[in-house]
């Protein structure tokens, strides 16, 4: 283009830069949102609308954010923003979990580093340190969340350690006390001997652990009436927890399983088996037992079923050494032939199955192990020894008693504390429980699960199976930092005091003084005049932290007028089926009869690019702060919405690189739209869709289709699908087609031409729809683009105060869309032929070409009235009906477009120095070196 014509062309003009510079730009936008108080303006704009409440599952306030936090919070923000832009009042109130072991453990570490024992510190002083620690991390995490672009009530978040929250937790626990669901019982619970407390299922992780295994004889004292052949034999058990042997009180068999009585005839050297002895084992496990015990020859003397063992009594291997009690054989439905001997040794104080079987048969769980993991003083042979160090002593004692048949080791999945990483034990301890059966809590919870929408649907079965099989809810912890179990127990009867007035006095005190008052206040202030303090003992345990978070619906949703109960949505990682979703469900069903949510959404966990779990120890865990400071938060946000969050999600440098490239293309689309709209005014708009060219009307139809898709995806929380649709629209429909085709119209037509006005009218609609649809995803970029488009907007304005634009019914034209499907199919064959011609050096730019297109009559009819040369960005194009003239064999074809073939020829004429098309009339007009169209535009421009 010559210099004299360049100034006559409408080249795109915009201040929206190609290089995003997000790491520098985003803090400026955040500062603007703070300045205009965007959150308050969102609330004001939504006043009176239908509420949509996503209730925030509280993260723990004890460290910098990781990318799992980023995934979670960005997904929540995308949902709240999209619901707001669909016309709801979508308020997001962030919150934090503050009580419990993780923070207490951190403070204990400080004491240990100084050589001090936490138990020697005043409990209130210790709790104040825990509170200060949580406050410090809340402040840090708040700023890190805000930097991700998450909009919410950051000035007024909720915390479980706020005084009103602690008060409401007291009231909620009191409801279970008053309806009879809360009781004290001694049951085996998962216990950390390092942290000296019971742990909830959600605080447990499973890791490989190597255990000592033992095969032990239990001599038969009395054979059951159905199997006298057992006289003089020994039942053989197998266990991976030798330390539980002092707690043994029974052996269990499978009632329907086959068993054998086998005589040992020969043994290998070093075997602990004895020739002539008679052993009872599961028939299906006999070969394995013989191999483990070194039995080289044996005879099966009898075959029997488990039911025949009823009434059999054994003796403990250490009889005469303080274990002088009978050991009955009992039927257990949990006994299998997968591994071991077919018999399970039963220690009612050290296992859930053991406990319930023992209870069913009147066996009292013995107390054998204290909170430090040491055998109590009254335990014969092993008093004072640690359970994780006692295996050699157990083996030796079994050998001395002649009871050990074999031993070995096994590496298996074993419960560990997620905090200390130490292995756990099942330990019988007195704890406070909420019954799953009293008041039909289990039935109510299962019914609520059926009434809840689960996204993805498999979540329903997962949590349902957990509720079906879960034991009573252990809610007490032997720790210091948390809401105390505010109960008074009668010193003589052991019964808790059930008085609603006492509960309310405690709660009212906590509202103003906090839960520390339980440890400093005189019990009289709580008991009041009706109860004698001398008769009652205050409980010193605390409530487990999962009860705290399970109560958030009560002290957040029900108490804030800007929210509502129940929530529309709870959203967390899939591990929360056994955590927050679970305990919130139980708490709410136990006190209100239904779930505190209408829908629950779960996302997967983060993996590295190889599919391995992200962890700091592996060095594969990038922090969101690092990504944000280098690439920008919108890259993280785009990664979230472009990922299928219903499954585990991969994350890493290459994936971020791909996301950045996707963002770049998306940004360039917005930049082109903004450049094309430079100077656009309402006077230029073509208001009647019917007056628009077919191509523009097709674009409006696509916007109408996308509007349906966007709203459906937002309601389904299917942002992965939504983004794919928008990205395809930008790359395929806009960049690779519509905008590419209309560059000539935008650049070279007269400003007042109907073609250019129509194009800019449609681009304006595209921009408004696209930037608002993208606003929940790339919130910073959408704001930047909006402010670029409307530089004179009021200081208080924002794209995020908009709603998704309404789509006029007149835009929808399915018949037109079908026609354009045919036209675009034909065009793909043409562009493919042009690409091949360029590759073969036949031509340079596509405007040098005049393709000849051979097509069937229906396709030619679909192209009628359209300027196919413009559509294919060539200087000319000829359509030929293949019914009359078949295409040459060498013509270019595509397998998926039937009947279309293209031969590329060079256009005849000269190159227009303004629009660059090659046309026969170039040079024949008043303006030198231009075509007729450009000559007319130049004449009009000169006329002013």
UniProtKB/TrEMBL annotation:
CDD domains per UniProt: Anticodon_Ia_Ile_BEm
Gene Ontology molecular function terms on file: aminoacyl-tRNA deacylase activity; ATP binding; isoleucine-tRNA ligase activity; tRNA binding; zinc ion binding
Domain called Zinc finger FPG/IleRS-type: residue spans: 911-935
Any single Pfam family the record assigns to this protein: zf-FPG_IleRS
Cofactor annotation comment: Binds 1 zinc ion per subunit.
Cofactor: Zn(2+)
Gene3D superfamilies the UniProt entry points to: 1.10.730.20, HUPs (3.40.50.620), Ile-tRNA synthetase CP2 domain-like (1.10.10.830), Valyl/Leucyl/Isoleucyl-tRNA synthetase, editing domain (3.90.740.10)
Protein name: Isoleucine--tRNA ligase
